[in-house]
Amino acid sequence: xxxxxxxxxxxxxxxxxxxxxxxxxxxxxxxxxxxxxxxxxxxxxxxxxxxxxxxxxxxxxxxxxxxxxxxxxxxxxxxxxxxxxxxxxxxxxxxxxxxxxxxxxxxxxxxxxxxxxxxxxxxxxxxxxxxxxxxxxxxxxxxxxxxxxx
Length: 150
What we know:
CATH class: Alpha Beta
Strand content: 15-25%
Helix content: 40-55%
Largest sheet: 4 strands, mixed
Distance between the termini: 38 Å
Number of strands: 7
């Protein structure tokens, strides 16, 4: 299994020129707390310039009582974001996220274009499925042993 098999392929992007108020509205509208910042170019996969989170907005704008209409995404975003490749092993991505202390990370293809987002939620769902498979193997092993050795 690799990152591409468990990541969320729906990526909400924004440009660095969008004002913070509009970015917050986009997060609300799309029910996300994370936007990937890409250059203003035609649609399609693009390399990320940065990321902005709801926490970034809270810390850099709300807590400082700054005017969200006066700031752009490019003023607040995290530049040079941590990235993982869609072909990366899941454990490698998890270690990368742990070292960086992040909960979400853009997923890129071999050309460096954003193709997904990997979140702790995605990882928890994966681990839960694997735990279910493990417990099922134990349970079924007991049942089969009980039936064949009765």
